[in-house]
Each structure stands twice: as structure tokens, then as C-alpha cells.
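call fold target=DUF1905 domain-containing protein
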Amino acid sequence: MSTAKTAHPIDLEFTAPIEKNGAFATFLTVPNSAEYFGTRRAIKVSGTVDGHPFDATLMPSGSGPHWMPMRAAMCKQIGKAEAGVEVTVRLQQRLS
């Protein structure tokens, strides 16, 4: 028997540069995420990147903030994939 998870509305917006270091092919650092969410565990979220919708799992970095993986399809959709290029993210729902 499966249990459905309830989405909780959130409103967190930030601008961050695209990063690449091998942990994920392409990712963003979510500033102050451990404090905002009250955990350093993985967190499923949905929202927008430069106005385009996405779902992702924020991964704990081990040092505080979470990393948000940027899939190749999302990078193509927003037309940005180079390290250092800034994107605007709005997290709208916490799914876990």
C-alpha cells in the first residue's frame, strides 16, 4: 500500500550561478537552504528556473547548503549551461 505525499507550498526565490565540479554534471547551490528547510537531508521540490517549470531533488552538500542538479534538458530549455551564468530559481512546493 503506497502513501501519497502532500505538497507543501513554499516561496523561496534566489539567483545563483551555474556550477560544474563533477558531483553533478551541472548544478546550483541553494543559499541558506539547510536553515530554510530545517534539514540537511535530500528534499524534493518543484518550481521554476528562469520561468520554466521543473521538479528536482535538492541534494545535501555536507557543508550546509543543498545542491540543485540542472538536467541537460532544463539547460537546453532555458538556453543556459555554462558555468558562471546566473539563473533565477523560484521554489514553489516542497514535495518531501
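return ok
The two ends are 18 Å apart (CA to CA). Helices lie at 33-37, 72-78.
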